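lol ok so funny story. i was supposed to be doing the assay writeup but got distracted and ended up predicting the structure for this chain instead. priorities right. anyway since i did it might as well share w the group, maybe its usefull for someone
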Amino acid sequence: MELRHLRYFQALAHTLNFTRAAERLHIAQPPLSRQIQQLEDELGVQLLERARPLRLTEAGRYFNEHSSTLLHQLDTLCENTRRIGQGKKTWMGIGFAPSTLYGVLPELIRRLRSPDAELELELGLSEMTTLQQVEALKAGRIDVGFGRIHIDDPAVMQTVLREDRLIAVLPAGHPLLGRTVSLADLAHEPFVLYPGNPRPSYADHVLALFSAHGLSIKVAQWTNELQTAIGLIAAGIGITLVPETVQVQHRDDIGYVSLVEANATSPIILSRRVGDVSPGVLHCLAVVEALRAR
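and the output, tada:
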């Protein structure tokens, strides 16, 4: 299937007339008929009821709706590509760890996408761990990343934006709910840690925190996503630590408790390529600083 098949079918679906569709496409009618027949042969279904008047079959209506969406997305892609190539627009890739969505990142994205922004940006958003962000930065797939792990790599510059206090997530009805707890109180509980891969990750940060206090924990379950971890905790599999911003999620089957230890924190870290002074990155950094100064 080629792009012209979609465009030819769209013209025919709009006019429901081979002659008018051919005129719109600036081709003769017989080639149009052959192209539509080729499309039907490739799909293995009939898209048109060749009667008078011409009508779309049910499969044709479905193909018309979704191919129209696809072509619109392609047109938008082409237009944005031209604008970026002409210097009228900037594309910037952002990688983010899921827990950073509860912090500064949503407001940053809103400001970067604002019609009143100084720079017209097309944003590409990708969920990934800090380690994946570093590889994506070096490969040029993203331009900035928001994660929680310090990585020693000479090609990547990291800046700690803030330290989030950590809190414990417990299943509803847990006896530790309703009071402030210590890491020692939690060390006897089974833990759900995330992400399991790739490592090092936020899970290693949690393990190191307990180790620094002379404690060790038993991991009952590894998972790769924050939401999955919270679901497992609700099911009574164990407990975990999350940044305090995550407690904006209100669920009846879990509860949050504060920690005694003031140093039980997790940083939000902005990562970018060393020496990258592209307009998009500089604009992003300026917006981040403005948000931090509030």
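The chain is about 40% helix and 20% strand. Residues 31 and 116 are 48 Å apart (CA to CA).
back to the writeup now i swear
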